[in-house]
Amino acid sequence: MEIVVDQIGDRAATYEDFTKVLPETDCRFAVYDFDYMTPEEVPKSKIYYIFWSPDTAKVRSKMLYASSNQKFKTGLNGIQIEMQATDASEISLDAIQERIKDRAH
C-alpha cells in the first residue's frame, strides 16, 4: 500500500476545518497539531495522530487501513496523543480537549 498525502491544512485553519475534510465513507490517517492554553494560561501544543475509520466505510478500506496503521504510525515522529475514531463525536473538540486533561493527570 502506498500512503499519499491527501491534504495539508493551512496553519490558520481551525480544528473544525480539519474535521470537516475527513470523508464520511472512507478511512484516513490524520495528524493535527492542536494549540491550547493550560489553566495557568500557558500556551501549549499537542500533536494528535487520528486513525479515522468511519462505520460507513467499505469493509475492504477498513481492513487495508487497519493492516497499515501500525507501520504508518511507526514512521511518524513527535506524536503525543493517538486516537481512533469511527464517527465525528469521537474526535469532537470536547473529546480532543478531554484527552489533554487525561494526559495532564
Compact summary:
With 105 residues, the chain is α+β, with helices and mostly antiparallel strands. It contains 3 helices and 3 strands.
Q: What does the model show?
A:
The chain has about 100 residues and is of the alpha+beta class. The chain has one domain: Severin (3-Layer(aba) Sandwich). It is built from three helices and three strands. It has helices at about 15-20, 60-75, 95-105; strands at about 30-35, 45-50, 80-85. It has a three-stranded mixed β-sheet with strand order 1-2-3. Strand 2, helix 2 and strand 3 form a beta-alpha-beta unit. About 10% of the residues are buried. The mean pLDDT is about 90.
Number of helices: 3
Query: What string gives the helices and strands in order?
Result: HEEHEH
User: Which runs of at least 5 residues are low in confidence (pLDDT < 50)?
Assistant: none
Q: List the strand order in the largest sheet.
A: 1-2-3
Q: CATH homologous superfamily, by name?
A: Severin
Would you count the extended β strands for me? 3
As for the number of domains, it is 1
